[in-house]
Design brief:
Elements: E1 3-6, E2 17-22, E3 29-30, E4 35-41, E5 44-49, E6 54-59, E7 66-67, E8 72-77, H1 85-89, H2 117-126, H3 144-149, H4 154-161, H5 177-192, E9 195-203, H6 205-213, H7 218-232, E10 238-241, E11 244-247, E12 253-255, E13 257-259, E14 262-264, E15 267-268, H8 276-291, E16 305-309, E17 328-342, E18 345-359, H9 365-381
Parallel strand pairs: 12-16, 16-17
Antiparallel strand pairs: 1-8, 2-4, 2-7, 3-6, 4-5, 6-8, 9-18, 10-11, 12-15, 13-14, 17-18
Helix pairs in contact: 7-8, 7-9
């Protein structure tokens, strides 16, 4: 009898996930534990394995569909076996995305090894036929550089550059899986969390001198300072869930990473106990995986505060939205040369404005000011080293 395959609960906070790509076609043999399909969530792309041996008889949910945990997505059984008609009729409608938004490049038949999901997704986003790319890695393996260097095919280019236009020349396209997830998160936070803002100017002289002497990123210094402050202010490791306050043991800091129009927030764990140099290396690795859309879901879970740095653009100040599951967010502006009075003299110092957004259900103004003052003290004293 044909075995129904249902979407498992993969722990995402979203009600639905995007079925990005089938890795097996109808009629192909599939083994227990063999990758069967890819799904895209708010946290990245995941391969899901088959829970049965046999032949993929029917793909009930199409690539580009939104599916929820428990939804029927396929049948696996013996070749030629009939698929239950009643189950198909009650499977529910799928919601297809525009063709340009779904990676549809076929798997190459002769390429050594399996192509990572991140490269297939990257090729789909760029409109590149992945089967036509020549791999330059060991044994002819495909690399990210190969995908980035490939030129989109004519058909793919047309699909990406000419979306269907409606009356009056207005075109419409569905939000990508990650963009849609972020949109739902910030909308939920904006509607449910009473947020206020506290800001301070911070003298970045010591931070700039340290960075000149040591090859670390400014992001690492901010994450380190916030991590140290989290260790002293456990309330900032807490968040509100219904009528309960949930406190995390780890001083885990999420860092906003922008990739084109997408936003990712990988988490730096134990940010209070790692050196700035170690954090800088970790941030570089996480940012690289964000750019290749290969961050694992676990790498974006468990944070308690978000750090968002736009000072490199440069932006003087802004307010960051508190993510669900967090109680605060720190927005970092540019360090700008500013006249400062000290000891009866005027000097010019690089001052950056830090703005803390806090959940007023949990954190009062005085506590927020004390937390931000501690971050300021760490940065100005060089205690982050």
């Amino acid at each position: 009898m044909a075995k129904p395959i249902r979407m498992p609960d993969i722990g995402t906070v979203e009600g639905e996930v995007l079925l990005a790509r089938w890795l097996k076609a109808e009629g192909e043999t599939v083994r227990l534990g063999e990758p069967l399909l890819e799904v895209e969530t708010d946290k990245g792309v995941n391969e899901l394995e088959s829970v049965a041996d046999g032949v993929l008889l029917r793909q009930v949910a199409a690539a580009g569909s939104k599916v929820a945990a428990g939804d029927l997505i396929a049948y696996v059984g013996v070749a030629g076996e009939a698929v239950p008609a009643v189950a198909l009729a009650t499977a529910g409608p799928t919601v297809p995305l525009p063709a340009a938004a779904v990676p549809t490049a076929p798997m190459p038949a002769a390429r050594p090894g399996r192509i990572p999901p991140s490269l297939r997704l990257l090729a789909g986003r760029r409109g590149v036929d992945i089967a036509s790319i020549r791999g330059t890695g060991p044994g002819g393996a495909l690399t990210r550089a190969d995908v980035l260097a490939a030129r989109p095919g004519a058909a793919a280019t047309a699909a990406l550059s000419t979306p269907a236009a409606g009356p009056g020349g207005v075109s419409r396209a569905r939000l990508g899986g990650n963009q849609a997830a972020v949109a739902r998160k910030v909308s939920k936070s904006w509607a449910e969390t009473p947020v206020y803002h506290v800001s301070m100017q911070v003298d970045m002289s010591r931070a700039q001198a340290f960075r000149t002497a040591t090859p670390v990123s400014f992001d690492a210094l901010f994450v380190r300072a916030v991590g140290m402050a989290l260790a002293e202010f456990p309330l900032f490791r807490s968040h509100v869930e219904g009528s309960e306050v949930v406190q995390l043991a780890d001083c885990a800091v999420a860092l906003a990473v922008s990739v084109e129009e997408d936003l990712y927030a990988p988490v730096l764990r134990a940010a209070d106990s790692k050196t700035a140099a170690a954090l800088s290396r970790e941030i570089e690795e996480l940012a690289a995986r964000a750019r290749s859309r290969s961050l694992a879901p676990a790498e974006m879970e468990g944070g308690c505060i978000l750090v968002s740095n736009l000072g490199m653009l440069p932006v003087e100040s802004f307010d960051a939205i508190v993510y669900p599951g967090h109680s605060a967010a720190l927005a970092v502006g540019a360090a700008l040369p500013t006249p400062v009075a000290a000891g009866g003299e005027i000097r010019v110092a690089p001052l950056a404005r830090l703005t803390l957004s806090a959940d007023h259900r949990l954190i009062n103004g005085k506590t927020a000011a004390q937390f931000l003052a501690r971050v300021k003290q760490i940065l100005e004293s060089g205690a982050f080293a």
